[in-house]
Amino acid sequence: MLEHFRAGSLLVTSADRPDVLVAACLAAMNGVEIGALLLTGGYEMDARISKLCERAFATGLPVFMVNTNTWQTSLSLQSFNLEVPVDDP
Questions:
Q1: Sign, Cα dihedral of 57, 26, 23, 51
Q2: CA 6, 10, 12 angle in degrees (round to 5)?
Q3: What does the pLDDT read at residue 18?
Q4: Which of 10, 39, 70, 87 sits a CA distance of 20 to 30 A from 78?
Q5: Where are the domains positioned within the chain?
Q6: E strand segments, the chain
Q7: Do 40 and 70 meet the contact criterion of CB atoms below 8 Å apart?
Q8: What is the mean pLDDT of each run of 10 residues along the chain (89 residues)?
Q9: Cα–Cα distances in angstroms (integers) from residue 15 to residues 9, 41, 49, 81, 83, in the given order
Q10: pLDDT at residue 2, as a whole number
Q11: Count of helix runs (H) and strand runs (E) in the chain
Q12: Where on the phi/psi map is residue 41: left (φ > 0), alpha (ψ -120 to 50), or beta?
């Protein structure tokens, strides 16, 4: 799993996967500049995991939540348009 934790990467995982969340937080606390965590499934992060990861969040690790499942979210991300229009101020 750790090979996926690269600087600037978006980690997409279900919010009910404490193993992935803790591993990502440990990586962030040890200098891996993860782009962000995107938690899927609409689950609330377990309070104990949230407490355990406080220091990682304090490093500025962005965490976003969506209601769609991991598969649906991944498909949506594949079609996400990253281009900025020329006339964008």
A1: negative
A2: 115
A3: 92
A4: 87
A5: 2-77
A6: 10-14, 36-40, 63-65
A7: yes
A8: 73 92 90 90 91 90 94 90 80
A9: 17, 7, 10, 25, 29
A10: 63
A11: 4, 3
A12: left
CATH number of 2-77: 3.40.1390.20
Of 26, 40, 49, nearest in space to 72 by CA? 40
Query: Would you state the structure tokens that stand for residue 51, as one six-digit string?
Result: 């407490």
3-state helix, strand, coil in the chain (%, to 5): 40, 15, 45
Residues in the chain: 89
Q: How far apart are CA 65 and CA 15, in angstroms?
A: 8
* Cβ atoms of residues 46 and 19 within 8 Å: no
How far is it, in rounded angstroms, from Cα 58 to Cα 27? 13
Place of tokens 């965490």: 63
Q: What's the predicted TM-score (pTM) here?
A: 0.81
The one-letter amino acid code at 66 reads V
